[in-house]
Amino acid sequence: MNLNLYNLFMLSDKLRNDFPQLKVKHNGHSLIYLDSAATTLKPQKVIDAITEYYEKFSCSTGRGNYFLSSQLESKINESMKSIAKFLNCEEEEVVFSYNTTYLINIISKILASNVKENDEIILSHAEHSSNLLPWYMIAKQKNLKIKFCPFNKDLTIGVSEIKSVISPKTKIVSLAHMTNVLGNTIDVHGIGNFLKEKNIYFVVDGAQSISYHPVDVKKIQCDFYVFSAHKMCGPTGLGIMYGRKKILEKSEAVIAGGHMLKSLTTDGSHDFVSLSSKRKWQPGTSNYAAIFAMKETISYLQEVGVDNIKKHCIELKQYLVSELKKLPNIEMYNEKLESSILTFNIKNCSAEDVSFDLSSKGICIRHGDHCSKILKNIIKVQASLRISFYLYNRKEEIDYLVKQIKKGKDFLNHLFE
Ligand SMILES: Cc1ncc(COP(=O)(O)O)c(C=O)c1O
Known about the structure:
Bound molecules: pyridoxal-5'-phosphate
Strand order of the largest sheet: 4-10-9-8-7-5-6
Oligomer: single chain
Number of helices: 17
């Protein structure tokens, strides 16, 4: 951990200056962005890299022999290398697509051919719809059973919770490393080890954790680990998947098209052979600008240090909790969990009205069910407010937010002034 940088980070505005969007004003108020679990702001370095692709390297790779195409190919390979290093996997195990959602759909289709009727998939009640609906789809198609793993009293999942729900019919466990409403982190290492011994596929939704926990997929021993670049200071429109090489090699393509075809028959048998594993999973033209910018994205996160970001966010959350505790009308659902996320409600106020009111003061926070429709089975409310921090947030923003929240019951007054 780079502690010097961490101290610097706490003391200076340098890192905030890296994010041009923080200069945006709304109704004369400075932007207070507290929705980084949805998507993070982007540092200038990443924005510049995206522009550089469009200004200097705009072309398609793998289809041309000309100089631009090979220059772009080597840039893409550099990004691929830095992602593989970041995750501790081989380059052939990194696959690009649009986002986490799309990739979990692809994984569910890959694994669908390895299960049979009545086999079981284990999920949790805190999963994002993106790690729920793809499994619902294949469960329906193949007549599989979905079971939900319980949480322990600390609102997390470890090996004992998994043991309590698996059976000889369990074939797939798919869980978020860190969930998007409670911000709880599961014991991915313990679970990964256990599932490997049992020969059960382990899919990890890393959409929230990738920007917050250092990830080593080999230590986790998962079969798939997926995340979206836009939640880690990177560009939108890019999902990244680690897939175990053996599975990627032996599995059939689940979507197909240009850029991945080796040969095909025209004798009526409708067979085709895909190119190498990497190509097989990325048919069509990729989001080159985004992939291009991933090298800068990773280098930015490494410069600041994911551990430092985590420490900073935990500190901010603890401060927010202590300030909100001073108010009489707040109901918090995950105050004890060490994370970047606080989910709460203001008693007798609808979450939607509160977020709308705060928005008029330049504060962006999320309201609703946060795409986790069945979390209500755990926190017992359907709609809540969610504040999620990232490296650019600071205590002064919390002071301003709490000051606005203190107005409590006057929330809607400004609408009628
Ligand atoms: C835990 C989790 N999984 C999956 C997703 C879906 O990510 P995307 O919209 O980038 O596909 C999100 C987005 O908020 C998330 O928080």
